[in-house]
Amino acid sequence: MKRVCFVTQGCRLNQSETASLENAFRYEGYDLVHHYQDADIAIINTCTVTENGDKDTKRLVNQLVNANSSIKIALIGCQSQVHKDALLNLKNVAWVIGNAEKMNTHHIIAQTDHLQDPVIRTKKMKRDAFVIERSSVDSHHTRANIKIQDGCDFYCSFCVIPFARGPARSRVYEDIIRECIDLGEAGHQEIVITGINVGTYDYEGKTILDVIEGISAIDTIQRIRISSIEPTTIPRELILMMNSNSKLCR
Asked: Of 100, 102, 118, 141, which has fewest CB within 10 angstroms of its CB?
C-alpha cells in the first residue's frame, strides 16, 4: 500500500480541495500519513497568488527531498497551471497537475505511477458546471469548507487568478447539498462556503442565496459562513438574509 502525505499552501479553497482529495485517496486504498519522511508520495497543493508562493514551493520541495530522497512529488493547482516548466526542474517532481484535472489527482497517479518521465496535465479550464467526487470531511476540524464555485472573469490587472483558475464556473447545486449532508452526518456543524468569488455562483438560475437556503434546511448544520466574496457581487437580499437567517453568521 502506497503512503501519501499532503501539504496545502494558500487559500481556504485549496484547503477544501485537499480535504476532498485526501478522502479520494483513502477510498482508492492509499495510506495517508502526516509526515513526509514516512511517505512514498507527497502531494503539494500549490499557490501562486502571494508574492512568496513560488519561492515557498521550491523551498518545500528541497526540504522534502533532503528528508526523504526517494519520495515522489506531485505539484498540483495554481502554480502548476501557470509555471509548469519551472516546476519540472525541481528534484523528484513526478507529476505537475493544473487546476483542470487537480480533483482527479488520485486517478492520474494510480494510472501513471509506473512511468519514469514526469507526467504533465495542465490543460485549460472550461466554463462547465462541475461536481466533486468525494466530500471534504475532515476529522481534525469541526468547521468544514465547502467549494461551490471556481474561477474568475474579472481579469484585474494585478491578479493572476483568471489564468491560474480559469473562467468562472459553478458547482452543481444538488452536489453541494449532497456534500453538506455528508459533512453534517460526519459531525461538522459549521460550514464555510468557499470558492474564488462565491458571489458569482450561478447554476441553472440558482444563486448563492439558494445555496444558503439549501444548506440552512439541513438539520445537522448549525452555522454557515461565507468566504471569498467580492463586495460588488453581494446582492441586497443577502444582507437581509443575514438578519433573518439564524444559521448565517454576520
From this structure: 141
